[in-house]
Design brief:
alpha+beta; Sulfite Oxidase, Chain A, domain 2; 2 domains; 6-stranded mixed beta sheet; 5-stranded mixed beta sheet
Length: about 190
């Protein structure tokens, strides 16, 4: 009984140290750079906290594997994504030209180029059987959460986050070619 009384305060101290360490690690994750945006000589680095303070937009979306059309239709399940709208990141860039594309680069060096129409959400929207819907738009975001969970919590293998390009609104379906995962860099390209 005496040994338990002696060990109890040490166990409490150990528990407090572990809790503080975990809290510091989570806070450091939110402070480290997860996105770099470049344009000519301009470079901006963003942490998760930075992106959340710019904008927070939540919508649902899914994608269709358009390379399989018209033979078959494969549509993913509806997922809720939270992130920053792409145009919100771009609007603070000094001397942004009137016409530009962006190149989104992933941590595995995969690169996708988006036009201004893509950024504004003027992309093909599909119905549940793979037909294009007329006069529909979506919102392009850099998602940092999927179904309410940060990628750092659900993506232990690093195969999706820290950010992903997603097209959302109220359960819109867009081409899988527009979605990009493991995003770390956005480069603005004058045209």
């Amino acid at each position: 009984m005496t040994n338990r009384r002696v060990l109890f305060p040490y166990m409490i101290v150990l528990f407090v140290i572990i809790a503080m360490t975990v809290g510091c690690i989570e806070e450091n994750e939110k402070d480290e750079t997860i996105l770099t945006v470049t344009f000519d000589d301009y470079t901006a680095e963003y942490s998760l906290d930075d992106l959340e303070s710019i904008d927070s937009y939540t919508g649902s979306g899914r994608y269709i594997k358009t390379k399989l059309l018209p033979d078959s239709v494969v549509i993913t399940d509806t997922v809720s994504y939270t992130g920053v709208r792409m145009y919100k990141i771009l609007e603070d860039i000094p001397n942004l030209p009137d016409s530009y594309n962006i190149s989104v680069v992933s941590s595995d060096d995969w690169e996708v180029t988006y036009t201004m129409d893509d950024i504004e959400g003027n992309v093909d929207i599909y119905d549940d059987v793979g037909n294009i819907i007329q006069n529909a738009t979506a919102v392009m975001i850099l998602a940092y959460k999927e179904d309410g969970q940060y990628y750092s919590k659900i993506d232990q293998d690093g195969e999706t986050g820290p950010l992903r390009v997603a097209y959302v609104d109220d359960d819109v379906i867009t081409s899988s070619n527009l979605w990009s995962k493991m995003v770390v860099t956005v480069e603005i390209i004058s045209i």
